[in-house]
Design goal:
Blueprint (H helix, E strand, L loop, with lengths): L4 E5 L13 E4 L19 E5 L3 H13 L2 E6 L9 E5 L1 H9 L3 H6 L1 E10 L5 E6 L12 E3 L3 E7 L2 E6 L4 E4 L1 E4 L6 H12 L5 H4 L3 E10 L16 E7 L6 E7 L3 E8 L18 H11 L11 H5 L6 E10 L4 E2 L2 E3 L5 E2 L7 H16 L8 H34 L3 H10 L4 H10 L16 H14 L3
Parallel strand pairs: 2-9, 3-4, 3-12, 4-8, 6-14, 12-19
Antiparallel strand pairs: 1-5, 1-6, 6-7, 9-10, 10-11, 13-16, 13-17, 14-15, 15-16, 17-20, 18-19
Helix pairs in contact: 1-8, 8-9
Length: 466
């Protein structure tokens, strides 16, 4: 298993209640659009992407390498300040190396050496060994401040109309706009009106608990020695007769990322449009007061980290999960958390979105002119079938991980001690069974080094070894 890397990631803003004004029309028109008097002059396949998160940006860059036209529509006016990290493993590092991005990723990443599970008093329960976009896209392909209000789709193509009057048209629409996806909600409205939306897709996201996370300012290496090390350790601290679980991870630039999960100031919600941003600074501050007494691996309490964390770098979110059954309809398809939402601390969200993008681009690359609707439908169906087993397994694994870490009692303690003390070779075999490691079919492939030889190769890559 190659060393996971933790990198800062954008925190996408939640979709707020105004998304209810977004509407979708699926018609049988074969030419022309209601908001544009002219069809596209060029006979090229074009992909419209809603959402400039990890999934949307990776999809765009893969399309760039495939020579496929695309545009990304993002409702925010600028790239948001990162408030969290993402985890990348060998499932996606192969692709990143294939795209020529590995060196740049490693410059902003901190490799993880091991995951350490601790009791509330810092006694170690067990360990898992983890060592066994500049000038990338053409200018104008990411369009900021494009809040999509309406989508019109039919045999001749798909068109998005934005709140500022801007209109984009293409052959397919990809909803990469996150867990509270407006594209999904309104595609589902169309299916519901037609009476063909599965009941399970009408249910709200499954709310499990809250999480509060933050990223500190650069810390003093003398007081926090781990921050200066080349490889960081992820510390998971289990509360004693407490509903809280804490995650501590050193990050790039001598900073420390911290996260606490549990039923903190739980807000009851009854609809999917519940705003995560409703957890404002005041409520986040109250939550910090509830958890500041928790002990941390560096000595002292979490208050030391909270005091060194800017308040705009503290974020409280809902921990939700759900697997949606319907991923596509007509010319619209979903990727990432728009179609499968993972609990935030499972490390799966960003990786699975990237894997979705790879699968979809490989299929888009095979569609030939004149890009008939049936060929697009076939590509969507193959994409769904390709990703179905892996995403289901990932959701099951993340749920099991959440249960393993958060449950209390002697039975849970026994299971944690057993899992976190398995022999290294058992850990390696177990991880290899979960690896998929897809790559882009139209680029030179990267050799799969496997879990046995990756340790030394990863160390050389990170340290500039010969």
């Amino acid at each position: 298993m190659s060393a996971p890397s933790m990198i800062r990631s954008p925190t996408l803003p939640p979709t707020n209640n105004t998304t209810t004004s977004f509407s979708t029309t699926y018609s049988s028109f074969s030419s022309g659009y209601p908001y544009s008097s002219n069809m596209r002059e060029e006979a090229t396949f074009k992909v419209l992407i809603v959402g400039a998160g990890i999934g949307g940006l990776m999809l765009g860059y893969c399309l760039e390498r495939a020579g496929i036209d695309y545009v990304i529509l993002e409702r925010m006016n600028h790239f948001p300040v990162p408030k969290a990290t993402i985890q990348l493993t060998s499932n996606t590092l192969h692709l990143i190396e294939q795209l020529g991005l590995l060196d740049e990723i490693m410059k902003i990443a901190k490799p993880v050496s091991q995951v350490v599970l601790r009791k509330h008093n810092m006694a170690v329960i067990g360990k898992i060994d983890c060592l066994y976009v500049k000038q990338r896209m053409r200018e104008g392909c990411v369009q900021w401040g494009r809040y999509v209000l309406e989508v019109v789709s039919g045999n001749g193509g798909v068109q998005c109309r934005c709140a500022n009057g801007h209109v984009e048209q293409g052959d397919v629409l990809v909803g990469a706009d996150g867990a509270h996806s407006a594209v999904r909600q309104n595609m589902y409205k169309t299916l519901r009106d037609k009476g063909i939306l599965p009941k399970v897709d009408s249910e709200c996201l499954k709310f499990t608990q809250n999480a509060i996370m933050g990223s500190t300012e650069p810390m003093d290496e003398e007081l926090f020695p781990d921050v200066g090390k080349e490889f960081g350790d992820v510390h998971i601290v289990i509360g004693k007769e407490s509903p809280y679980t804490m995650w501590i991870t050193p990050a790039l630039g001598n900073t420390i990322n911290w996260c606490v999960t549990g039923p903190m100031l739980t807000t009851h919600r009854t609809e999917e449009n519940f705003m995560v941003s409703g957890f404002g600074p005041e409520e986040a501050e109250k939550t910090c007061q509830m958890i500041k007494h928790l002990q941390i691996p560096y000595g002292g309490t979490l208050e030391r980290l909270i005091q060194n964390t800017a308040r705009n770098n503290i974020n409280k979110i809902l921990v939700e999960e759900k697997y949606y059954k319907t991923w596509y309809y007509g010319r619209t398809v979903l990727i990432g958390e728009a179609c499968h939402k993972f609990v935030s601390f499972s490390g799966q969200g960003a990786e699975q979105a990237i894997l979705d993008a790879v699968s979809l681009v490989n299929l888009f690359h095979k569609i030939e002119h004149p890009y008939p609707l049936q060929a697009i439908t076939n590509a969507f169906e193959k994409y769904h079938l390709d990703r179905l087993p892996a995403t289901k397994a990932a959701i099951q694994t993340s749920g099991q991980l959440a249960g393993l870490i958060n449950r209390q009692g002697w039975s849970a303690d026994f299971k944690r001690k057993m899992v976190f003390n398995l022999p290294t070779w058992v850990q390696a075999v177990s991880v290899d069974k979960m690896q998929v490691r897809p790559q882009l079919d139209f680029l030179p492939l990267i050799v799969d080094r496997g879990s046995k030889s990756v340790r030394s190769l990863s160390l050389k890559s990170v340290s500039g070894g010969q």
